[in-house]
Amino acid sequence: MRDLANPVAACRTVIPAIEASTHAPKPVNSTREQSTLRSLATRVVLALAWVGALSGCAAVASGNPTQAELAQLRKEHEELEHEVEMLRAEVRGRLAALEGRESTVVPAPRLPQLPARPPLDRATLSALLDAYREALEAEDLSRLESQVYGGDLPTEDARLFGVFFDNAYELEVILEHADIDLVGDGATARLTVTQTMRYRLRRTAEPRNVKLGLLMVFQPKDGAWRLRNVSRR
Predict the structure, then answer these.
(1) What sign has the CA pseudo-torsion 148, 149, 153, 154?
(2) What is the dihedral of CA 69, 71, 77, 80, to 10 degrees?
């Protein structure tokens, strides 16, 4: 306090400065909870300094000020002591809540296990191609969906097979293919196929022998390899 000749005025100069500092912005250096606790601790320390300042001011000012001024100082002193106790209680409560959360072990969520990818060996591939060939020769789109695709036919595939079935009967299919090409991490397989079709034209009954170059793409679906789509190359 700079002006000891007027201790009450000096106290009233110091008190607002301390009061302003108790409302300083909360630091945000760590987690939200740590920041809150650090801010509360700061407010407690500053509040205690305020209590000491008021006590000292009351002692120094006891000789000169009026009774009303002394009563006001005592009132502010008591109110601040009450606030300090409330701040201490809040700090204790927040610490207890924080310690309780840290002591609670939260189990890590279990990730769903993906089904094991079936191997695409020669036997699997042969079975798929046989089912494909037999469904074409039977002109049976339902069998293609259930046994080969494992679901609805893609639009372009359905259009291609529709052309076959609309123009041919007594269809015989022969498939020749190179080695299968696994792409990416092995989750997709591509097969280059030469599809020979022997049939008769529906309009004239004339025999035909046509070769098509196709690209077949396979992927695992519901635990089994399935044909994803067919395209002309």
Answers:
(1) negative
(2) -100
* Torsions phi, psi for 32 (to 5 deg): -60, -40
Domain shared by 64 and 133, yes or no:
no
* Whether 97 and 13 share a structural domain: yes
**pLDDT tens digits for 22-62?**
454 444 445 666 666 667 667 666 666 665 665 655 555 45
Q: Whole domain around residue 52: which residue ranges? A: 7-103
Task: Please compute the mean of the pLDDT values over residues 209-228 and round it to a whole number.
Answer: 94
Question: Cα–Cα distance between 123 and 143 in angstroms, integer?
Answer: 20
Residue 135, CA atoms < 13 Å, CB-side half-sphere = 20
Token pair 């209590």: residue: 51
Indicate the number of domains in the chain: 2
Alpha helices per DSSP H over the chain: 7-21, 32-60, 67-103, 122-137, 141-143, 155-167
For 11, counting Cβ atoms within 10 Å of its Cβ (0-12 exposed, 13-18 middle, 19+ buried), the class is: buried
pLDDT one-digit tens code per residue, 142-172: 999 999 999 999 999 999 999 999 999 999 9
Residues in the chain: 233
Q: Residue 73 corresponds to which tokens in the numbers above?
A: 């100082």
In a domain, 115, yes or no: no
Given a cut of 60, whether residue 79 has pLDDT beyond it is yes
Q: What's the pLDDT tens digit per position in 93-123?
A: 877 777 766 556 566 677 666 556 778 888 8
**Structure token pair of residue 5:** 């000749």
